[in-house]
Every structure is written in structure tokens, then in C-alpha cells.
């Protein structure tokens, strides 16, 4: 039986495993295996809410083992360390629990078709102090770590006298892209809720200072200017301090230093600027004897053709943030959730024919616009067109509904209509008896 191994259980990888499991695994046409270093999946666009504590991690997590059982694929715990292209095997590192005890040993896994979907990680560009003094918001573990530090800092701030003219607690966010902007608004909303749960001195304007720093001339630099202006207007209403055209050149335990000479104090610093693929992809598929590795871009992404096959091995595919895929017009598929989802659905349809050696129409990314959530206050976005022309601008309640709809689309891809309806009902019931914010 043909062995298809998917490495990476993010939004794209899990959706692909689910669809292939239904179409091929359950019918005995192929053996589908999903590999991930974690046991559960969380939709990455929700990380800013998990960090602020406004979304329950456990309510959102999807168990890989359960998803595999229901949808006709297998799950293996482990992280990819290497690929032997000649023998068609991949090496997985040993996994350990929090006490350091081994859960699974280092192991090998055979494949006939290998699909890499390991996503991306935050790129700190080698900025001095960034690795030691910032939290990079690129995983559920990092989001939880930030939330723990936030709650602890709020408790600590209750006993520290406030210095005149400054916030008692300062959160600095480096990066004015979607993640940074969404986190800033979410933190402001979280502070309002915290005041109702015993943190009576944590006022979002007086006691919590939120600082957003962006190196580009404007926020959301990759999105339409009108969307950027609208987001800036909303952040100003919330008294969030925004610094544009300011490049961070050093991070210390309690401050950010800019190229302009400006210094911003910070109790907690989040780095949300820039993305890159994992470093290990640079040598993936190579041999100790100097055998050629898979081709990668400057950002460590695996270079793929129009069918999402790596350029040096047709039996290995890559998609999502970890892949560099050039379009017919010369542009590159952007590292965004909607691109990974479209590529996952493309492979779910096309992979049987590609495995059979048939000619398949190349993948073409269709930009459906962008949406940015500003917590409970508003949302802004552009829909149905390119980001530079022909787009339809929306904001307010309609944009908030559309943002909510993106999450529901992801749940539909993984669980179908009935399960998504039950999840939605459960979310509505949860709001009636659970705190609006995670307090532990």
C-alpha cells in the first residue's frame, strides 16, 4: 500500500491528513500518517487570544489521536530531524515529558510520498538580546508562556507603586503586522476584564501601558493602506502607544533600544516581527558525505514547483509557510493561513493523480483578502480581490463576523458540519459560566 507521510500538524497539515484519510485512508487506497512534535492542534490565528487569555486553550485544542481515529489516518509523535531520500525514510527525534523522561525513542519511518508542512517560526533577524529577553508568539506553548507571565506581572503590579507619568505594567510588542496589532487590541480588552476579577488597579489606560513598535513606515505594511489607517485609528482610541519607522537594535530585560536612539521601557516584550522557516530545512535531504540537500530559499523555505513538489525530489512535497512557491506571474505565494489551506485542498484533490504520474494543473493562489481582528472593539479587512486593487474594504461588525467565519471554515474542514455546529453551541454555553479570561 502506498505510504503518505505528512510532517506538521498545523492548519494545512492537519486539514490535508483529514481529507486524505477520508478519501484514501478509509478506502484502503493509501496509508496516511501524520507526524507532529505535539499531541494537540491549535489554530495559529488564535495565538494572540490564547496569549491574552481570552480564549481557552483546552477548549480549542484538537487531539491528533482522536482526529486520526475518526478520519482514517495514523498519528506518530515526533519531530523531524532528517530524511534519507535514497532509502525513503525519515528520522524522528526522541520525545520526552516535562521531567525529561523518554516517551518515544528516536525512530525511522518509511514513506513513498513525503509532505513537509512544518510551518514557520518568528524571525528576530539576529537582534542582540531578542532570543534571551522576548517571547516569540509562534506556538501555543509560547502563547501560554506569555499568558503566565502576564498574569504574574499583574499580580506583582498590585504591590508596586506606580511611577508618575508611566504605566505600572508595560507590554512592548515588536512588529506591527497582523499578530502584533491583534495582540495589542486583545491585551487592552483583557485588562478591562482583569479589573473585574480582583485586579482592581489594572486599568487599561492608566496601569497597563501597551507599546507597539514597527520598523516600516506604517502598521500592516503588507496590507492595503486604508486597512492600515483604520487599524491605527482604532489603536489610538485605545491609547495604545505606536512607534512606526523605528527599528529595534537591542533588547534588554527591561527595555527596547531603537536605531534612532529612542529607548522604550518594557516589563514583558513580545517579538512578532518577521517569519522564517526552520533552520534544519537548509540541510534536509542531504547526506553526511556531501550529498545534495533539497533546494531552499534565503528564508529556509523548501523551493517547490507548481505541483508543490520539491525541485530536487518529486516524491517530496512542501506547502504552507515552509515552502517557496512561485506563481505564473512571478510573485510568490505569501506565508498566510489562507494560502496553506488552499494548498492543502489542492493536494487533497491532486495527490492521487500526481502519485499515478498523471499531469495535473499547477497550483494558483487566489487571494481572498485579509482580515485583522481588533478584539471586541472592531475588525478591519479587505475581501474579494488583490491587496492592491479591486478589493472591497470592510470594518466593524461585518468584518468581525467574517473573521469568526474563517475559524468556522477551519473547523468545517476538520470536523464537518455537524461537529462544527456542536462546537459552536458549546462555545456559546461556555460563555455563560466560565470567566471571560483565563486566570491561571
Task: Write a structural description.
The protein has 10 helices and 28 strands. The chain is of the alpha/beta class and 440 residues long. It has 2 domains: 2-120 and 277-355, FAD/NAD(P)-binding domain; 130-273, FAD/NAD(P)-binding domain. Strand 27 (378-383) and strand 28 form a beta hairpin. Helix 1 runs parallel beside helix 4 (64-71) and helix 1 (11-25) runs parallel beside helix 9 (337-355). The model is unreliable at 384-390 and 433-440 (pLDDT under 50).
What does this entry show, briefly?
The chain has 440 residues and is an alpha/beta fold. The chain is globular. It has two domains: 2-120 and 277-355, 3-Layer(bba) Sandwich (FAD/NAD(P)-binding domain), CATH 3.50.50; 130-273, FAD/NAD(P)-binding domain (3-Layer(bba) Sandwich).
CATH names the topology of the largest domain as FAD/NAD(P)-binding domain
The helical percent reads: 25-40%
Radius of gyration: 22 Å
Task: Note the gap between the termini.
Answer: 47 Å
Low-pLDDT parts are 384-390, 433-440
**Please, how many helices?**
10
Mean pLDDT over all positions: 84
What features would you highlight for this structure?
globular; five-stranded parallel sheet; 28 strands; 440 residues; 2 domains; FAD/NAD(P)-binding domain; 32% helix; six-stranded mixed sheet; 25% strand; disordered C terminus; alpha/beta; 10 helices
Amino acid at each position: 500500500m502506498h505510504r503518505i507521510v505528512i510532517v506538521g500538524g498545523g492548519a494545512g497539515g492537519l486539514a490535508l491528513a483529514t481529507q486524505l484519510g477520508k478519501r484514501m485512508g478509509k478506502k484502503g487506497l493509501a496509508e496516511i500518517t501524520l507526524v507532529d512534535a505535539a499531541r494537540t492542534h491549535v489554530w495559529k490565528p488564535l495565538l494572540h487570544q490564547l496569549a491574552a487569555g481570552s480564549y481557552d486553550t483546552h477548549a480549542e485544542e484538537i487531539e491528533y489521536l482522536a482526529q486520526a481515529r475518526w478520519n482514517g489516518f495514523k498519528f506518530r509523535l515526533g519531530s523531524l530531524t532528517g530524511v534519507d531520500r535514497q532509502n525513503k525514510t525519515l528520522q524522528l527525534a526522541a520525545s520526552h515529558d516535562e521531567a525529561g523522561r523518554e516517551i518515544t525513542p528516536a525512530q525511522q519511518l518509511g514513506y513513498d510520498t513525503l509532505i513537509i508542512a512544518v510551518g514557520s517560526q518568528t524571525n528576530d533577524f539576529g537582534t542582540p538580546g531578542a532570543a534571551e529577553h522576548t517571547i516569540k508568539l509562534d506556538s501555543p506553548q509560547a502563547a501560554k508562556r506569555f499568558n503566565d507571565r502576564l498574569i504574574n506581572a499583574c499580580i506583582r503590579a498590585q504591590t508596586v507603586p506606580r511611577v508618575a507619568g508611566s504605566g505600572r505594567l508595560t507590554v512592548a510588542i515588536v512588529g506591527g503586522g497582523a499578530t502584533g496589532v491583534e495582540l495589542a487590541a486583545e491585551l487592552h480588552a483583557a485588562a478591562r476584564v482583569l479589573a473585574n476579577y480582583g485586579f482592581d488597579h489594572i486599568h487599561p489606560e492608566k496601569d497597563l501601558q501597551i507599546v507597539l513598535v514597527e520598523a516600516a513606515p506604517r502598521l500592516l505594511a503588507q496590507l492595503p493602506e486604508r486597512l492600515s489607517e483604520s487599524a491605527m485609528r482604532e489603536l489610538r482610541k485605545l491609547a495604545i502607544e505606536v512607534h512606526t519607522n523605528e527599528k529595534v537594535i537591542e533588547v534588554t530585560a527591561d527595555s527596547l533600544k531603537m536605531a534612532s536612539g529612542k529607548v522604550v521601557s518594557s516589563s514583558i516584550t513580545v517579538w512578532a516581527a518577521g517569519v522564517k522557516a526552520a533552520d534544519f530545512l537548509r540541510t534536509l535531504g542531504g547526506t553526511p558525505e556531501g550529498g545534495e540537500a533539497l533546494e531552499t530559499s534565503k528564508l529556509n523555505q523548501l523551493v517547490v514547483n507548481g505541483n508543490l513538489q520539491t525541485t530536487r525530489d518529486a516524491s517530496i512535497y512542501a506547502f504552507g509557510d515552509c515552502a517557496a512557491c512561485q506563481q505564473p506571474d512571478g510573485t510568490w505565494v505569501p506565508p498566510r493561513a489562507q494560502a496553506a489551506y488552499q494548498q492543502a485542498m489542492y493536494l487533497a484533490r491532486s495527490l492521487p493523480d500526481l502519485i499515478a504520474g498523471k499531469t495535473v494543473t499547477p497550483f494558483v493562489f487566489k487571494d481572498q483578502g485579509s482580515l485583522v481582528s481588533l478584539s471586541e472593539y472592531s475588525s478591519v479587512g479587505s475581501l474579494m480581490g488583490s491587496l492592491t486593487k479591486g478589493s472591497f474594504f470592510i470594518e466593524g461588525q461585518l468584518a468581525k463576523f467574517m473573521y469568526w467565519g474563517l475559524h468556522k471554515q477551519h473547523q468545517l474542514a476538520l470536523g464537518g458540519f455537524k461537529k462544527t455546529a456542536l462546537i459552536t453551541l458549546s462555545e456559546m454555553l461556555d460563555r455563560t459560566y466560565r470567566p471571560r479570561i483565563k486566570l491561571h
